[in-house]
Amino acid sequence: MKRFASVLVIALFTVAVLGGLATEAKSQETVRDYLAMHEWSKAALYSPVLPLMVDTSKYKKAPPYVVAHANAAVSNSWGVFSAAEFKARCEKYKAEGLISKYYLTDAQNKPEKQIADIQDLVAKGVDVLTLRACTEAALDPVVTRLHKQGLPIITVSRSIKSDNYTSFLTASLYTMGRTQGVWMAQYLKGKGNIVIIGGVPGAGPCIDRIEAQKEALSHYPGIKILDIQYGYWQAAKGKQVMAALIQSYGDKIDGVLMDSGLQGSGALEALHEAGIKVPVTGDFCNGFFKRVKQWGYDACAVSFPPSLAGDAVDVAIQIMQGIPVPHHNIRQNCVSTTVDTMDVKADLPWDKVVRMDKSDDFWCHNSLKEEEMPY
Amino acid sequence: MSSSLRVLFEKYGIYIFLGLLLLVASVVSPAFLRLQNLRDILNQVAPLAMVGIGQTFVILSGNEGIDLSVASVMATAAVIVSVVTGGQNALFLPALFVCLCFGLVVGLANGLLITKQKCPPVLTTLSMMIIIDGLRLLCTGGAPKGDFPGVMRFLGTSNIGPFPASIITLAALTAAAGVLLRKTVLGRKIYATGGNINTAKLSGYKTDRILTLVYAISGFMAAVGGIFLGGWIGVVDNWVGKGYEIDSIAVVVMGGTSFEGGRGGVFGTIAGVFIIMILYNLVLLLHLPIFSQYIVKGAVIVFAAYFYVRKVIR
Hints:
heterodimer; A: alpha/beta; three-stranded parallel beta sheet
């Protein structure tokens, strides 16, 4: 009897473990399946105009191709995932015989290094260049010159000042901010006090998202912004700022609007320690997702996908095959919520996105297989 | 000003300033004196003060002493705990041991390069910072795995009686550092080396050993600070302690330790940390834009530098 009981316990345990693993794997499959179905974004779906298509017939060439990605930086986790997406997509095409070689450079956020990187890549004979520019102005001259010399160039998420590129592939920062703002306003039924904790003051993405949040909130006169502070996209600053805001406003805070989960994770730590449960917003940073799930907060997250770097490889192949591509190529901002509102519905439920088995720095909106993930 | 009052002001100026700041803060912001706010401040004071103690030893020892690698050591220590323990309390002690050894080794390497190879401290510790950051990014693939164990979170956020655990640890470390500097032969040797290295050598002090030791202390304290800061934040990240290399130098200068070496001490540094953290907190409580923190920090450092330079000239 005892032996039977032991066997039963072991069997149940094994089933539970395997079931758990399967659920985790399924969660990743769900995100990948979802992304695979969204070659088009909702932004394109609702656009009142047809996209301006670029004739790429002059670039048409027989495979295999040499592709490169000049990355602004891979020293943060988003950049790391972005690089992994690029590598994974290149490996896929390499296996299919469409890519012979690919290069990836890291400019460490220094424009002068990125210019040198690009010149090196051109010297190596790349057929198509994808890049995430350190700054719009500094990279403009070199990209413009190379583009005019006939090199197809795809800018990814951070473009250059002029439109001297073949295609600009990005997701919308305004959509991110607006969605976060509308969700918060509708969750609070149009009435309440909120605080905004942005990322790095003066940084382009942060400015755009906060502007869009404010624009969205302006349609809800019952929502009052008590304070706007910045968490520098760092958990430590996010916690420091949130702790002080709690002391300042205490129970008056009905919601915390944040553009990213990077400072959001820290802010949630402060809220949780103070025993305050209010709705929060962020992006697809796993640390933010984990804390929301663990502590039962209501939240809305909107992604700015690192998979853009992988999508850029798809566009690069299309260009080399002479297939027309949109000049401005907008991709999907995936939305996840714990509670939907009238206008903001989850594309993916929170539980399907969060990875409790992964680190805080993991980015949930990715199209990578488990073995392709950087960590 | 009568001479006795001037002496009092010169000797205890930073503490008088801290007292006044506390008074002003409690008047201008009613939220300042709330127990939770004070605990928040204390939890933020502890990690910076721990790093500041190590930096005080380095700057006190003179000879252009400075340690720019502290923030990298802090971040790496936090990452080591996260990766090694994976969030398990049982593995915290071995991870802690590894972290502290790591801090010591980095400090020793800094010290040996500075004393034996005669490399300038700024360049040596700057290079060390870059190397450590690079190695950490390489080993973690850009972002660390694992989680902080409960014990570490306890150290960073919980209270023992009415006081945060971190501030109790800081009090013990400050007392130990104070005793070491003021009551031991080694302390006297550090002051002597900072005051005039040639005289110290002529007195028979092994100044190379002393200088190497102060960098080792700085590395060790940075590792301790990283563990407490990681415990307070609770989020595993490759850049825990970013900016602490500058902040730790700022609080040492504010605390009255001379950049020339040989003058100052850890108690002034602790007062400097309190001033900077109270000002940071006040900026937020008064709803000023967060960038004001930089202006406030810069202004206080300039004021402190002006105050101490005047004191030296006189």
